[in-house]
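Lab notebook: predicted structure, single chain.

Context: the supervisor wants predicted structures on file for every construct in the current expression panel, including those that have not yet been purified. This is the next one on the list. No modifications to the sequence; it matches the entry in the shared construct table.
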Amino acid sequence: VQLQASGGGVVQSGDSLKLSCLVSGMTLNGYAFNWIFQAPGKERETISCIRGTDGSANYADSVKGRFTISKDNAENMVYLQMDDLKPEDTGVYFCVATLRCGLSPKQAYVEGYWGKGTLVTVSS
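Prediction complete. Output recorded below exactly as produced.
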């Protein structure tokens, strides 16, 4: 099982960015996929999760209305569209597969499959 996140970069406040996660070794329908965010010097936070069963999604309040998670089962890809980026969105974004949504990052660390993160830097 491998998850490979990409798409990070340096952008300005208000810009958009789309992160991608290539998943191999598992079918997307059988898992939930999370984007977990870690700002510099802070704890990790699950900011979004999409269910494998019906594609419904959860969002943290900090990104609700600005970020959109999606997936393409045929391409084995998970995405995070990030709009109206803010400096506080700066950090590393991890793509994580779990059996269900609603897990804390610590639970996901124990129970999930993690890929290497991708760094997003938002300048003001």
